[in-house]
Amino acid sequence: MGLLGSFLALMVSGIPVAIAMATASLAYVMWSGSVPDFVVIHRMYGGVDSFPLLAVPFFIWAGNLMNSAGVTNRIYNFALALVGWMKGGLGHVNVVGSMIFAGMSGTAIADAAGLGTIEIKAMTDHGYSKEFSVGVTAASATVGPIIPPSLPFVIYGMMASVSIGQLFLAGVIPGIIMGITMMLTVAYFAYTRNYGRDAEFSLAKLAKAGLEIAMVLGIPYLAWLATELGVPGGWMTLATFAALLVLDKVFNFSAVMALLTPVLLIGGMTLGIFTPTEGAIAASLWALFLGLFWYRTLDWRRLVKLTMDTIETTATVLFIVAAASIFGWLLTVTRVTDAVAEWVLAFTSNPNVFLLLANLLLLFVGCFLEPTAAITLLVPILIPICLKLGIDPVHFGLVMVLNLMIGLLHPPMGTVLFVLSRVAKLSFERTTVAILPWLVPLFATLILCTYVPQIVLWLPRKFF
Description:
Blueprint: H1 2-12, H2 17-32, H3 38-48, H4 55-68, H5 71-83, H6 89-105, H7 108-125, H8 130-141, H9 151-160, H10 164-170, H11 172-192, H12 203-229, H13 233-251, H14 256-270, H15 276-294, H16 300-333, H17 336-347, H18 351-366, H19 371-389, H20 393-407, H21 415-424, H22 428-435, H23 439-451, H24 453-463
Helix pairs in contact: 1-2, 2-16, 3-16, 4-7, 4-15, 4-16, 5-6, 5-12, 6-7, 6-8, 6-11, 6-14, 7-8, 7-21, 8-21, 8-22, 9-19, 9-20, 10-24, 11-23, 12-13, 12-14, 14-15, 16-19, 17-19, 18-19, 18-20, 19-20, 20-23, 23-24
């Protein structure tokens, strides 16, 4: 317990979690004398020497490129045509836009900083209060890591030895449910506060938006149909894709190219064309193609800056993973994880009770630790208990990430709160209060996904 004690002491003193884990591990190794000192470096290096972790820099880069390539404006205009005519229209646009952007960025921060800047300004210009604008923007940003791709899923999959492709598919239905519950919340506020419509209903615009969706969804359908008919699916997909590029130039669609990103990722992984790591590279190349050649909104100087920002963020994430690798290994060899598992199993052997306790723990931890640190710290402790209780690790991964996304909305470490407080020029206290009503749809989704695992596991079991 000296390892855990020293880690907690360092955390309480204000030292960043990654440095606290690495320092506590090194101190324990030197004090115990039972493990050679070089094992610390060996284990830290081994922790980041992982093929799935290659997805991390590429997903971060893809999100940065999408944010700077003018794609966010196109997604906003597409969502406006699709749902802007409803009561409380820009609130619905906010949610739908975040769901679409989630299929490209994989992070809540990219969503809040990218689309959030556009959405909050548009909503306040149309007469919505800053509190309502910030609340819906913060809540909708949490869907980013749930709908694939997802950086937290990549980290969890690597730490828990779980298929990242299954985790990505596990987030699709819960992400849609999150969007629906948030749109219902927008509708409630729209009718109780008498919010109007922010765009005139236009059958032509709605039909054009619907056509964009149908065209994008048609690519995987045609690939499947070609396979069924014995025609090479790759050639059919390529031909359809080429036709889509021509139609986009002719009709100047809002978001066809952006909507293709999640289809490219999920379809490619489901059909076995590439792994999640290769999918991250494909997403980055696609974002690069859109910014430099298709929309021509990126220049080389901006590209270099985005790449350096990506390197900086990646270094931070990988240092956390490296520190957690040695810390988790020491927890295992010193049998701390076994002791925790025995204590929990002595308290309850009911999976539902354990899931309740795990939710409470994760919500508490999510208030203080950012998701990557929380995942790397808790997975070695909680996964053995899940396996003994028969809880599917894919299901638990979704529950863990969803809890930690809700934690991003809580002080004192709610990163999304800090970002939106700065974007909206609203005090941190008022931003926190604005979030509170939006916790209702998020908690409703969390409870549903926790206790109805079929919602989470249906797609992974169907395709894997």
